[in-house]
Design brief:
Keywords: ATP-binding, Kinase, Membrane, Nucleotide-binding, Phosphoprotein, Transferase, Transmembrane, Transmembrane helix, Two-component regulatory system
Strand content: 5-15%
InterPro entries: BphY/WalK/GraS-like (IPR050351), HATPase_C_sf (IPR036890), HATPase_dom (IPR003594), His_kinase_dom (IPR005467), HisK_dim/P_dom (IPR003661), HisK_dim/P_sf (IPR036097), PAC (IPR001610), PAS (IPR000014)
Protein name: histidine kinase
Distance between the termini: 128 Å
Helix content: 55-70%
Oligomer: single chain
Pfam families: HATPase_c, HisKA, PAS_3
Enzyme class: transferase
Strand order of the largest sheet: 2-1-5-4-3
Shape: flat
Length: about 600
């Protein structure tokens, strides 16, 4: 009896709760409908106000256009249009003032009304001046100087009003949404008690279905993106089964091999691999499957349709599932046939160029030695002839012979230096310039070179000044260092005839410094950065001659000894060459510094 009564009471309480929930829900629906209707009316009014503001802005622009047209052509119909626009403006403005309730918007309307009065007063003044016969240029100037700024300010206020109204409209929309959300929330809470069990089960079921649907849609989108990327990729892509069969191919892969997808799908990639590359491919696949490598990249050859060979750059990686089990291999290939052809062509051209250089350098070396061979006896004969001529100084013929023999010796020495430069240049091209390092007194070496150049300096009218009294001993190649000093001194005498030449040797810490200073023609500023380049000339070779290798060889030798040479010059005021050398140069072969290039004699 009690159980039946309790069960009946529970059922009655349940029905009461359900009816109460339904009543609250019905009341919530009515409240929501009422509030929604009220807010809908307010929303419509806000939208209408925004449209009215936009129309005011349109009327403002039309008034400005009519005003400008009337200034240019005072036609009656234009003035009528202007007045009608102004009247419509006033009507719209009054209507807007009656409906707008936002404080900030009403303040902006008040400023708009003030600017409108000012614009109308100024326009009436312009109209009056027009009727009095004022010049159009003056009226246009007044329009531009006075009326335009007022109208720009009016448009700015209208834009500000429009922004306020848009914000008010958006706030009304948000308020309606919040009200609707609160009503719906109350309705849901009221109905929740009656349909808790069914609602919970239904909610769980719906959520599960939605998640499943979203997951399916995401999978479909992901698959679509993958297929689009796969099919439109600029390289060939393929999915390869674990037994080596092609499962999926894009069009680019098929184009590289020259087959259609129908011909390739289901086929084993090894059947289309060049026989010489199959063993390496098998080894790479075994390492990939064993987990020794996560991916591989190599160049390989495929057999195209028709039997031709195509080179490809292959990249492959093993794709695994969440548990680490292998699924398939993703492979990408890129056609590198053109690159391979260019590499082969470049290798062939390089080999040909190296052979040509070898032959040229061999020829230069042989030619240099052959050219030097007749110069040695010629020099000896000239020395003998000079001694015989000097043995009879009283004979006029002997004095003439002596002068000519000395000139001949100078030409032989010049030819010898040119041949030495040519031979050094050929050695530089092959890196065969060797350094024979020994202890050298740079001061003594400079004094000796200056002594040998005294006759040349005397003929050039140059006074040689040597400041090298203190010994400066370092470990250098004496012959190459003498070549450097001779080259710099020869240039100083060549380009500074009649002017003094200074040679100074000094030591500073672990460095030795040689300075060669002349007061000749100098070097142009645009030529100075290139003065040490091979075959470079600061002046015309027609007047000064030479091969343009002296300074290049000088810098090469100095850098080979671990030092540096720099040039400073002002055109017309001479040039200064400064050589700095470490007192102990590096042992071994001379090498080009970074950025230098060995001369290639022709």
């Amino acid at each position: 009896m009690r159980a039946s009564f309790f069960s009946g009471g529970l059922v009655g309480a349940l029905w009461v709760a359900i009816l109460l929930a339904l009543g609250v829900g019905f009341a919530s629906v009515l409240t929501l409908r009422s509030v929604t209707q009220e807010q809908g009316v307010a929303l419509v009014q806000e939208a209408a106000d925004l449209e009215a503001v936009q129309h005011l802005l349109f009327l403002s622009e039309r008034r400005a256009r009519y005003a400008r047209s009337w200034l240019l052509s005072p036609e009656p119909h234009i003035f009528r249009e202007l007045e009608e626009t102004r009247q419509e403006w006033d009507v719209r403005l009054r209507q807007l003032e009656e409906t707008l309730t936002v404080k900030d918007a009403r303040a902006v309307l008040a400023r708009i009304r003030e600017r409108q009065h000012a614009i109308q007063a100024l326009m009436d003044h312009i109209v009056a001046r027009r009727e009095q016969g004022a010049r159009v240029e003056d009226l246009k100037l007044q329009f531009e100087m006075e009326l335009r700024p007022l109208r720009v300010g009016l448009d700015e206020e209208l834009a500000r009003l429009m922004a306020l109204q848009e914000e008010s409209l958006q706030e009304a929309v948000r308020q309606q949404e919040r009200t609707r959300l609160r009503a719906v929330t109350r309705l849901g809470m009221a109905m929740l008690g009656a349909i808790l069990a069914a609602g919970a089960c239904g909610g769980l079921l719906v959520r599960s279905l939605r998640r499943h649907r979203r997951a399916e849609e995401e999978v479909q989108r992901s698959e679509a993106r993958f297929r689009a990327t796969f099919n439109q990729a600029a390289v060939g892509l393929a999915q390869v089964a674990l037994d080596g069969r092609w499962l999926l191919l894009n069009q680019r892969f098929c184009d590289i091999l020259g087959y259609s997808a129908k011909d390739l799908l289901g086929q084993r990639f090894v059947d289309f691999t060049h026989p010489e590359d199959r063993a390496r491919d098998a080894a790479n696949v075994r390492r990939l499957m064993a987990g020794e490598i996560s991916s591989l990249s190599c160049e390989k050859r495929y057999l195209r349709k028709g039997g031709s060979v195509v080179w490809a750059d292959l990249s492959a990686s093993l794709v695994r599932d969440d548990e680490g089990r292998p699924l398939y291999v993703l492979a990408a290939i890129e056609d590198i046939n053109r690159r391979k052809a260019l590499e082969e062509e470049r290798a062939l051209l390089l080999a040909e160029a190296q052979e040509a250089l070898r032959l040229r350098e061999e020829f230069l070396s042989v030619a240099s030695h052959e050219l030097r061979t007749p110069l040695t006896p010629l020099s000896l004969k000239l020395q003998v002839l000079l001694r015989e001529a000097r043995a009879y100084p009283e004979l006029p013929f002997a004095r003439r012979v002596e002068a000519r023999v000395v000139s001949g010796q100078q030409q032989v020495q010049r030819m010898t230096r040119l041949i030495d430069d040519l031979l050094d240049a050929s050695h530089l091209g092959t890196g065969r310039l060797m350094l024979r390092l020994e202890d050298v007194d740079l001061a003594a070496l400079v004094r000796e070179v200056a002594r040998r150049f005294e006759p040349v300096a005397l003929r050039a009218g140059c006074a040689l000044e040597v400041d090298a009294a203190v010994p400066v001993v370092g470990r250098w190649d004496a012959r190459r260092l003498e070549q450097v000093v001779s080259s710099l001194l020869s240039n100083a005498l060549k380009f500074g005839p009649g002017q003094p030449v200074l040679l100074r040797v000094e030591a500073e810490g672990r460095l030795a410094r040689l300075t060669v200073r002349d007061e000749g023609i100098g070097i142009a500023s645009e030529q100075l950065p290139h003065i040490f380049d091979r075959f470079s000339r600061g002046v015309s070779d027609r007047h000064y001659g030479g091969m343009g290798l002296g300074l290049f060889l000088t810098r090469y030798v100095v850098r080979s000894l671990g030092g540096e040479v720099v040039a400073e010059s002002t055109p017309g005021q001479g040039a200064t060459f400064t050589v700095q050398l470490p007192l102990r140069a590096a042992e071994g072969r001379g090498e080009l510094a970074p950025g230098d290039e060995a001369p290639q004699p022709v």
